[in-house]
Amino acid sequence: MRHALANRRRRSEIEPFHFGLEADLGRTGLAFEAPAADWDGRIDVTDQRIWLNGLPEAFRGFRILQISDIHHSRFFPLDRVARLVEISNRLQPDLVALTGDFVTYSRASIEPVAEMLGALEARAGVVAVLGNHDFRVGAATIERALRRRGIEVLRNRHILLRKGGEILPVAGVDDYRYGADPERALRGIPDGLPTMLLAHNPRLLERLAWHGVSLVLSGHTHGGQVNLPLLGTIYGRSPERLRFKMGWDRLGGTQIYVSRGIGTIVLPWRLRCPAEMPWLELLPHHDNELLPQRDQALLPQHDLERRFAGRFQAEIFQAGGYRPVLKATTH
Questions:
Q1: Strand stretches in 104-200, DSSP E
Q2: For the chain, which residues make up each domain, given as ranges?
Q3: Domain 56-278 belongs to what architecture?
Q4: Which of 37, 215, 266, 329 is deepest in the core (most CB within 10 A)?
Q5: How far is CA 187 from CA 141, 182, 191, 247, 283, in A?
Q6: Sign, CA torsion 150/173/258/196
Q7: pLDDT the model gives residue 290
Q8: pTM of the predicted model as reported, rounded to 2 decimal places
């Protein structure tokens, strides 16, 4: 049993940093414009560094693009899904991680969105888990549709990525309340290796931390989707209420990134909570290296207060030309 006691496995911190590919991406001429008036077409590509204790050197600089909560429907049609694929392929990730809710209500949406996602390109492949809407619509059907397009669906199991003779385990679990089984997903992973795990709902974090998972990628929350002035989101507006609802955080030795996702639910629009594709870079941390400590400074992000660790520098890039829309620094 892989326990996640804070003093057993030292993990790392995360540092949002400047998107170093700005010039190259700007030259691509990539544009992301919405045909419908109820969606402004904005997607933030959030560039983050994550240090993992024990990460093999062969995986230094390994790039992961997370795509979550597409919710393909009449409110998020296929032309928008095609733009997601285009952005992803322009970024040339090592791995694409799809963290669930590919559809919303209709089984008729399954094959078209799977066909479109089959065009995703990544050096180590494309992995996926299913979300609560996927289970309600038809988990087995969605799983088969994705597998036929070469997408590795991780239903309470793991795979081992191999590079330069070294290994990085990547696991995935079914959704919260739909059969999530971390024990089964992690069974057989050699001790001492950092493990990344995809889980649609961040409510699984406590169980995953207990098992010593290094990094969790989640979605589900949409970041609140609607962020009203003064009132905030459905989760509130204080840092305590927003914890584990969007962006990076940690529980003990386990880090988590919760994406705001792409699509919408209930209301067909977002307000002051733009869609997001996290663009993560993995870096090894060694025991003799100092890490930034958790800071109590509060920083605005799309008018929501967030807690970040230590020195913070971030720029979020808009898909249409990838221009910076946020930059903040603390000491």
A1: 126-129, 152-153, 157-163, 166-172, 196-198
A2: 56-278
A3: 4-Layer Sandwich (3.60)
A4: 215
A5: 26, 8, 10, 28, 25
A6: negative
A7: 58
A8: 0.77
